[in-house]
Prior knowledge:
Number of helices: 5
Mean pLDDT: 84
CATH architecture: Beta Barrel
Largest sheet: 18 strands, antiparallel, barrel
Radius of gyration: 26 Å
Amino acid sequence: xxxxxxxxxxxxxxxxxxxxxxxxxxxxxxxxxxxxxxxxxxxxxxxxxxxxxxxxxxxxxxxxxxxxxxxxxxxxxxxxxxxxxxxxxxxxxxxxxxxxxxxxxxxxxxxxxxxxxxxxxxxxxxxxxxxxxxxxxxxxxxxxxxxxxxxxxxxxxxxxxxxxxxxxxxxxxxxxxxxxxxxxxxxxxxxxxxxxxxxxxxxxxxxxxxxxxxxxxxxxxxxxxxxxxxxxxxxxxxxxxxxxxxxxxxxxxxxxxxxxxxxxxxxxxxxxxxxxxxxxxxxxxxxxxxxxxxxxxxxxxxxxxxxxxxxxxxxxxxxxxxxxxxxxxxxxxxxxxxxxxxxxxxxxxxxxxxxxxxxxxxxxxxxxxxxxxxxxxxxxxxxxxxxxxxxxxxxxxxxxxxxxxxxxxxxxxxxxxxxxxxxxxxxxxxxxxxxxxxxxxxxxxxxxxxxxxxxxxxxxxxxxxxxxxxxxxxxxxxxxxxxxxxxxxxx
Length: 491
């Protein structure tokens, strides 16, 4: 009897343990994008052959993104996404001997791009008994944008706590706090001089999603950031980054900045779809350096509008226009304040076309990002998702870019462009014509083969640039080309 009783206890314990294990288990779903591409390019710096800064002509790049969702139930899940690369074959991550021994060489074989990088790691849950959704951890966050595929102000991966609060069926609020930078982490054993609040960068944001009327959606938003004078390291603050540099800024200054704007989408007049954005930002310096006591700052705007015609089965034509404020001719106006809109970090997705200003599927096939290209207007036509043959699609862009930075700005600053360079800074005398032809063949549902072709006809004014840029003076300007062959496995 005792043996039977003991056996019964063992079986009951096993059942209890099994139920506990089952209750704490999570369903796991994998997702990712593994991409390898060959890039052939020429004159991305718009310099003729012979210039010191002449571009490389051929690279093979690879990027591996792999993620998992750990789903406990419909109200709770964890998300983990990793990335290896982007890196060129033969350089560090994918070179001979990569990962076999520690290396301090440029491109580091073991400590460089071959390491597994955290792309996302956050908890996604609803508060019990409510529809309020919380996302806490390292995640992807973007301010609203209707045109361009992402915000030109803030669109990146960073540590944050955000909440999505439904108010009514047509109204919800999204708000949160993010820690963008912290240069005095536990990994930094020599950062004693960076203690205190000057080493950190924080942002707070609030978004309203208003979708109360059929065919109309508007997303007003606001954001505020306090970025320290040493967040990028000892003596390197927010103004060391391209998105906050201005004519009189030094690298060791902090920034207080705010932004506001709205994204608008209208589908009421189907088959026409109208999208528009307005973004405004202002940044002022704090923690002024001893060598640069003058007040400084940066403020400006970017507005855009696009109209798509969705009534065709074989393609979607789209016309668009964008305008961003540029530098004035006299850089001493307002103590050297910049008239370009401040930008946080390097927004990942805002694009016009797929060559000069991001876009497309290629990893390393774009010349600029919003942080460096501010000060232009653009008028373009896109033929999107052209489908004439099964499994084969094309997108074509034709865009004209013109600078809004005054032609005298370079003369006033002695040829120095704070927060941009020759290939990305357009004055009112400079213009670009861009043509892109991007094709994709869907081999399997999860596997595609892409070919992206791009050409930019560049016109930089010889009187503006010849006096301040030695490369232009010696070699003149040249047109830019690219061709990218892309294998992409997405699951």
